[in-house]
Task: inverse folding
């Protein structure tokens, strides 16, 4: 499924024409191929231009909202100008029937050959939000509660868009049928097209007042508290989908889905590399020289690690299976432990003499200079 034009521009379906133009200017400035470093800038810029072209054209926007993104794109693919009532067979010539005339009419018009029947109820728009988690939660999986703002049926008018006592009259555009019919001349002859009435939006009825809370839309934006299951092993930037938790359908169909972009906070000890983890282990010079058994932290608790004799600073060791769980697969990644030999900042007299003796035994001539405070201590 390709990306919704509203999502491309980062605006809501009820955005004004001015809001859409401002969003377009901002996105176009960000992704213009002449200034953007994004490797996909040219493709994104084309999508931004297409979204603006459709959503700033009143007729095309009405058709887009009525048909939904995929059907609108399919209609244009077959040469049908959804905003101007163009020829659905444009560009096909007299032949090239492909999947069949009935299939094309079903995709473009939502009805049969003569425009019989109404379109199926559309699914509501998908919504998108973000969720930040800790590395520990990504390791073990978690149930996370969060709040999202989304459209809901207006409580004041029960989603009708008008007060209960508003005067009703039949729509003069469609004579109360909720649909308008157009006859088009195509290479196959005259074709009758039936579409949702743009004036009453298929209701067949107009009202003397609109709801003051939702301004006639039938929806208000409300906060909803939801809980999502975060699977163990999820990576930064991956997206979770909660079905039927998106926007409600405009005509009685199922709700859209809620897409949740997951980001993982930086960890103070571990760096993540896919399913593997990396950890820097500080050890002393004697430990590196003689070897030692030390504890290494993991996301499941500390484990013992044998530091080999004569370990060099920067040397890396692999602890198999101590990394992140593999998402939707068995097993874990590995933990890579990089040893770092720590140089002591303060030495007592005994340590200093031992190191000097060590250096002399190895034939090294080191000029050990005392600091000011060390000289004072020696004096007293």
Result:
């Amino acid at each position: 499924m390709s990306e919704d034009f509203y999502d491309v521009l980062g605006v809501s379906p009820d955005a004004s024409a001015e809001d859409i133009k401002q969003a377009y200017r901002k996105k176009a400035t960000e992704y213009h191929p002449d200034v953007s470093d994004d490797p996909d800038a040219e493709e994104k810029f084309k999508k931004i231009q297409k979204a603006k072209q459709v959503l700033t054209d009143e007729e095309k926007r009405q058709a887009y909202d009525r048909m939904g993104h995929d059907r609108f794109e399919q209609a244009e693919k077959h040469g049908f100008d959804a905003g101007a009532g163009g020829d659905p067979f444009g560009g096909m010539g007299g032949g090239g029937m492909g999947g069949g005339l009935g299939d094309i009419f079903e995709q473009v018009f939502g009805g049969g050959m003569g425009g019989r029947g109404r379109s199926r109820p559309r699914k509501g728009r998908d919504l998108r939000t973000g969720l930040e988690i800790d590395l520990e939660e990504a390791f073990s999986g978690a149930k996370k509660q969060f709040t999202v703002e989304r459209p809901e049926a207006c409580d004041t008018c029960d989603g009708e868009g008008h007060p209960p006592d508003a005067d009703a009259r039949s729509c003069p555009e469609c004579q109360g049928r909720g649909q308008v019919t157009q006859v088009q001349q195509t290479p196959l002859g005259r074709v009758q097209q039936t579409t949702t009435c743009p004036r009453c939006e298929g209701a067949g009825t107009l009202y003397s007042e609109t709801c003051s809370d939702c301004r006639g839309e039938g929806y208000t934006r409300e906060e909803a508290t939801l809980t999502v299951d975060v699977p163990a092993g999820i990576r930064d930037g991956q997206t979770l989908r909660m079905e039927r938790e998106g926007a409600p359908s405009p005509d009685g169909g199922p709700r859209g889905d809620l897409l949740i972009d997951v980001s993982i906070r930086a960890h103070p000890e571990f760096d993540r590399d896919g399913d593997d983890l990396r950890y820097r282990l500080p050890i002393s010079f004697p430990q590196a020289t003689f070897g030692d058994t030390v504890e290494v932290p993991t996301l499941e608790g500390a484990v013992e690690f044998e530091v080999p004799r004569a370990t060099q600073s920067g040397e890396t060791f692999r602890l198999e299976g101590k990394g992140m769980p593999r998402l939707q697969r068995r097993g874990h990644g590995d933990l890579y432990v990089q040893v770092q030999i720590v140089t002591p900042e303060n030495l007592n007299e005994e340590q200093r003499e031992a190191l000097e003796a060590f250096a002399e035994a190895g034939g090294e001539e080191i000029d050990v200079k005392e600091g000011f405070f060390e000289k004072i201590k020696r004096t007293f």
About this structure: The first helix runs from residue 5 to 9. Residues 83-118, 375-380 have pLDDT under 50 and may be disordered. The chain has ten helices and 15 strands. The longest strand covers residues 142-153.
